[in-house]
Specification:
The protein is α/β, with parallel strands linked by helices and 347 residues long. It folds into 2 domains: 1-102 and 272-347, Isopropylmalate Dehydrogenase; 116-254, Isopropylmalate Dehydrogenase (3-Layer(aba) Sandwich), CATH 3.40.718. Helices cover 40% and strands 20% of the residues. The protein has 11 helices and 12 strands. The protein has helices at 15-29, 44-50, 56-62, 86-98, 161-177, 192-207, 219-228, 240-253, 294-305, 310-325, 334-346, and strands spanning 2-11, 33-39, 67-72, 103-109, 125-131, 141-144, 152-155, 181-186, 213-218, 235-238, 261-265, 273-277. A 10-stranded mixed beta sheet has the order 2-1-3-12-11-4-5-10-8-9, with helices on both faces. The two termini are 23 Å apart. The structure holds nicotinamide-adenine-dinucleotide, 3-isopropylmalic acid (IPM) and manganese (II) ion. Its EC number is 1.1.1.85. The record marks 137, 187 as: Important for catalysis. It is an enzyme of class 1 (oxidoreductase). Residues 5-341 form the Isopropylmalate dehydrogenase-like domain.
Length: 347
């Protein structure tokens, strides 16, 4: 029987609670495919216990899988032992960089039955194509004269022609499959060097896609439109940091961060892609069994779609749609939502 080798990093906080439900949904959705799951104990709790963030051996072992499912990593931001984003940078970003996850795909689709916080949401169905391996995330910075009145802290945003072009190409190819519109979001009125590079590459790739219309928004204005008229968006292409911020907002307007899924893609497949909810470990609700597992379950659907099992991915989406259709506004626990989705998958 065909196998799907899955590495699972449940992580911290609500990560284990939501990935448990995502794994149940995957098992229920796959037929004629053996899901071989390997669990990796990684995250803030594991680091505090063992001192390991992620070893080279663990990285090599993760690389042997077809895909990675990640819950969320990161502990209490007030814990001095976790200062400096030691887990976020040392684990999550390390994986994204090591496995060359240069496309961070973050779709938002408002289900008709889900209450958006917007008064007039209209049709919300867009995808943010967030660059995943460059920008200010690369760690190219430093502090000078630290602790003095003349301290200088630099965080350099790295934008390469190679890195920008490959993510822009991905965005245009995606738009060809959708409503054929690409919006570049940047801040080229201030960040002129990077902004000019992004715009020039978008213009040149656009010339190869005459059927795709293109526009540009400054990132501040893009936040207005995401709230005022989100229906104007189809595919948004943007850098790593703007994409991070826009996709939490996108999650909120799309019915809640508990529904927002993402994929860190290595489109060439030379390393496993990694799928995770947009949200974090939510320490404020962790351990109470009330996190919405839908974002993790939809991330599992993305995983299946990008790992050669689109029908199984679609089955999960249909089960999530059915679950949302049946919502009556009552509060449900994480496992009640998981149960309902698994029940409709196995019905
Ligand atoms: P967060 O996304 O964890 O939480 C923000 C708010 O959204 C909280 O009120 C939380 O309760 C709520 N929320 C999040 N997911 C939810 C769900 N599934 N159901 C219901 N409510 C949900 O963001 P934060 O508080 O800024 O970060 C907490 C920790 O997670 C930090 O350590 C941060 O670095 C880390 N983080 C990790 C990832 C990741 O691993 N991919 C992503 C973002 C943040
Ligand atoms: C996300 C998170 C991460 C990011 C953090 C935890 C490093 O916010 O996946 O959106 O900024 O990419
Ligand atoms: Mn984020």
């Amino acid at each position: 029987m065909e196998q799907l080798r899955l590495a699972v990093i449940a992580g911290d906080g609500i990560g284990p609670e939501v990935t448990l439900q995502a794994r149940r949904a995957m098992r229920a959705a796959l037929s004629d495919v053996e899901l071989v799951e390997t669990e990796y104990e990684l995250g803030a709790a594991h680091y505090l216990e063992t001192g390991e963030i992620v070893s080279d051996e663990t990285l090599a072992s993760l690389a042997q899988h077809d895909a990675i499912l990640l819950g969320a990593v990161g502990g209490d931001p007030a814990d001095p032992r976790l200062a400096g984003g030691i887990i976020e940078r040392g684990l999550l970003l390390r994986l994204r960089f090591a496995f060359d996850h240069h496309v961070n795909l973050r779709p938002t689709k408002l289900h008709p039955k889900v209450a958006s916080p917007l008064r007039e949401p209209g049709e919300i169905d867009f995808v943010v194509v967030r660059e995943g391996t460059e920008g200010p995330y690369v760690g190219n910075g430093g502090a000078l004269r630290k602790g003095t009145a003349h301290e200088v802290a630099n965080e350099t945003s790295v934008n390469t022609a190679f890195g920008v072009e490959r993510v822009v190409r991905f965005a245009f190819e995606l738009a060809e499959q959708r409503r054929k519109h690409v919006t570049l979001v940047h801040k080229k009125n201030v960040l002129v060097h990077a902004g000019e590079l992004w715009q020039r590459i978008v213009d040149s790739v656009a010339a190869e896609h005459p059927g795709v219309s293109v526009d540009y928004l400054h990132v501040d204005a893009a936040t207005i439109f995401l709230v005022d008229r989100p229906s104007r968006f189809d595919v948004i292409v943007t850098d790593n940091l703007f994409g991070d911020i826009l996709t939490d907002l996108a999650g909120a307007v799309g019915g809640g961060i508990g529904l927002a899924a993402s994929g860190n893609l290595n489109p060439a497949g030379d390393f496993p892609s990694m799928f995770e909810p947009v949200h974090g470990s939510a320490p404020d609700i962790a351990g109470r069994g009330i996190a919405d597992p839908t974002a993790a379950i939809l991330s599992a659907a993305l995983l299946l779609e990008h790992s050669g099992h689109p029908e199984a991915g679609k089955r999960i989406r249909d089960a999530v749609d059915a679950d949302i259709d049946a919502r009556d506004g009552a509060n449900r626990t994480t496992s009640q939502i998981g149960d309902a989705i698994v029940a409709s998958l196995t019905a």
